[in-house]
Amino acid sequence: MFNAIGRVCCLALLPMAGLAEAGQGAELARAQGIAYPAVIAHRGASYDAPESTAPAYLLARELGADYLELDLQRSSDGILVAVHDDNLLRTSDVAERFPERQSSPVSAFTLAELKSLDVGSWFNKAYPERARASFKGLQIQTLDEVMDIAAANPQRQPGLYIETKVPGLFPGIEADLGKGLQARGWLDQPGRVVLQSFDRNSLALLHQQMPQVPKILLLWIGKGSIEPAAQQTFAESGESDKAAFYARQQPKDKAEFERWLDYAKAAGAIGTGPSAALAEGGAQSYADLVQPWMNQLSHDKGLLVHVYTVDEAVDFRKVMAAGVDGIFTNRSGQLLRYFARPSAHSEAQILRAHGY
Ligand code: G3P
Ligand code: CA
């Protein structure tokens, strides 16, 4: 249902090395109503606009992303919001607005307090080359507002790809999410929503609440996920670059990797969301959990593979050749161009046209 034309066109462009697996992955995706290969806008089009804000989400929609990704948390008065970090320090002016609570979790703030924060200005300071005056004063988005953005253009109807973030801090958030999606009719269309978590317990709770909705178990190497082959910590490794440290990490053995695929299935998942090691390293680069044998094993178990978080063509090429079925990206425009599904308008044109 999502971008059917794009799916057909992209399949033909996949590298030969990926073709055998593409058949399996494409079929698994089709059965779930999920786009193949899926373009998942990580916190919106968050390279070009502040993450998880209205312009980031509307830009991803207009570019043609298949899904808008968001990290779900809950205000102290019970409203579901899209925020990634455990606290608000990195992406807002909480230190100036609420100095005594600056390190407090999102759950320590009412929605009105969260809405009073400026979650755009940090981006202008961090990325002056992509800064826009209109980003100043942007607000945190509620789940309802992200749904509104996703549904606002009848010609462009991305789904939502929702992660329960630090779910241990938000008892009952899985039920709240189920009610929120149901109330807006978002569960009526197969594949319109995908649910994801690193937390197996949260995934199982999501499955209890919404058994019919596709779910993804996120994977990495570390505490609470796949056990590494070497127990050495980053500090003990003597490595100065975290990405280089992560890139050397491997699962303890094949059985350990397979165990996590089985956990995914047991929790009701239809796929996994593994990390990637990126060519240029950087803060998004982790262990390479999308090696061809891993993707083949996942497909053989009937699981889709959606890799996070990949922004460059060199890495798009590598992970697609390895057999993944979708990509979380901050740069939806770049990935759509790579998949020969370019938008008619540039990122800057779209932002300007919407008043940013
Ligand atoms: O949800 C997939 C990916 O977003 C996981 O990483 O930390 O960006 O939520 P994170
Ligand atoms: Ca996420």
UniProtKB/TrEMBL annotation:
- What GO molecular-function term can you cite, just one? glycerophosphodiester phosphodiesterase activity
**What's one GO BP annotation on this UniProt entry?**
lipid metabolic process
Q: Which InterPro entries match?
A: GP_PDE_dom, PLC-like_Pdiesterase_TIM-brl
Ranges in coiled-coil conformation: none
**Ranges for the GP-PDE domain?**
37-339
PROSITE patterns from the xrefs?
GP_PDE
Leader sequence segment: 1-22
Lineage runs: Bacteria, Pseudomonadati, Pseudomonadota, Gammaproteobacteria, Pseudomonadales
EC number assigned by the record: 3.1.4.46
Q: Which UniProt keywords apply?
A: Hydrolase, Signal
Pfam families, sorted: GDPD (PF03009)
Q: What is this protein called?
A: Glycerophosphoryl diester phosphodiesterase
Top-level class of the enzyme under EC nomenclature: hydrolase
